[in-house]
Amino acid sequence: MDINKSYRIVRILLALFILGLALSGLTAFPLIMEVNILERIMGRGSIVESIWPAMAHWISFVHQGLNEVNNKYPFMFYGTDWLAFAHITIAISFLGPLRDPVRNIWVVEFGMIACVLLIPLALICGPIRGLPYFWIIIDCSFGVFGIIPLVIAHRNIKRIMWFEQQK
C-alpha cells in the first residue's frame, strides 16, 4: 500500500467520524421533537410493542419524562445543549488530524481512549440512572462502532509515519 492510499483512507475515516460526531451533537438540540416522533413510531401501541415490548415501553416512558421536564423545567435541557456543543467541538478537534494526520495523531488516540471510556461510563451510570440493560448496550455500541474507524485510521497514520521515515 502506498502513502497516498494511506492518507486517503485516514481522511475518509476521519471525515466520517467527524460527520458522525457532529450529527450526534446536532440531534441533541431538537430532543423533544425527536422523542415525540420516536414515540409515535416505536412507543406503546406501535408495531414495535408486539415485537419488542420492553423497547416500546421504554420509549414511551422516556417520552413522558422528557415532556414533563420540558413543561415544568425547560431549563434542564440546557444540559443537552452543552452535550451538543461538546460533540460539535470534539468533532472540530478532528480537523487537525484530517489536515495533518502525522502531527495530530494524538487527537486520534484521544478519540480511541474516549471510545473505550464510554463503555464503563454507560455500564456504571446507566444502572445508577435506571436505564434498562438493552439501552445501556445501545449506548456502549457508540464506543465500539466509534473506535473501529479510529483504529484503522491510527494504523494508517503509523504506516504513513513509517513511509516518511524511509525517505
Which keywords apply here?
single chain, 167 residues, mainly alpha, 8 helices, 84% helix, elongated
Short description:
With 167 residues, this protein is an all-alpha fold. It is built from 8 helices and no strands.
Describe what you observe in this structure.
By secondary structure, the chain is mostly helical. The protein has one domain (3-166). The chain is 84% helix and 0% strand. It has eight helices and no strands. The chain has helices at 3-26, 31-42, 47-51, 53-72, 78-93, 95-99, 105-128, 133-166. Helix 2 (31-42) packs antiparallel against helix 4. The protein is elongated and about 65 Å long. The protein starts with a helix and ends with a helix. The mean pLDDT is 97.
Report low-confidence residues grouped into runs of 5 or more.
none
Count of DSSP-assigned helices: 8
Largest beta-sheet characterization: none
Shape, principal axes of CA atoms: elongated
Order of helices and strands: HHHHHHHH
Number of domains: 1
Decide which structural class fits the backbone: mainly alpha
Based on CA atoms alone, the radius of gyration comes out at 20 Å
Helix content: over 70%
Secondary structure elements and their pairing?
Layout: H1 3-26, H2 31-42, H3 47-51, H4 53-72, H5 78-93, H6 95-99, H7 105-128, H8 133-166
Helix pairs in contact: 1-5, 1-8, 2-4, 7-8
